[in-house]
Amino acid sequence: MTRSRSVAVLVAAALAVVAVLGALVRGSNAVTRADADVVDGVAGWRPAWLVDVARVFTELGQGFVLAGILLAVGLVLVLLRRAPPADALLPVLSLGVGAALAGVAKAIVERPRPPLALHEVVERSSGFPSGHSTQSAAGWLALGLVVAAATGRRWAVAACAAVVVLVGLSRVVLGVHSPTDVLGGWALGTATAVAVTTLGRAALARRPPAAPSTADPTPVARPRDARTRRP
Asked: How far is CA 147 from CA 54, 156, 158, in A?
């Protein structure tokens, strides 16, 4: 299987997960009793320190915070000449696309969030998919892919994936999302990150190289006329 086909299969599979989960939970608070049981169980157990930790990690999936992080890392890559500016901006583009897709999906599915009494933070949009989970997957995974391609450090993808997992878990700990909301967000964000980075880098690779300058900056010395030479 070629790399392009593998990417297409991965994106299609992730989007299929989003579609199936969205259809199952549309207008409903829980896809199964287990989904609601997880939210209730976590809310009844979570200690205060865990809530504080979750508040910190959840910010890593917040749009403006994440955009600032992505821009900062992209700037470092450009300054170190590890990636061209267009490549360095792909994670920011992926974040924007992921946020837009999450908004559309929320409007279509209209799934209620867990009961308001369980919320540790204020949220007003519908539940599926988790916007923070979608944005973190779209932004952080795209960043990992770009860094890995620019530096050869493939562990960057795993490190960014760990951040994505922590952001998603924080949403359940804070009582604002069911597990299936987070799963849907992870799937949608992963599809976005893979598609944007793959298509973006392919498009940039097809750009024609800049035409060389025809002007010669070095003047050519002309030989002196023998008749002008003095004896």
From this structure: 26, 7, 11
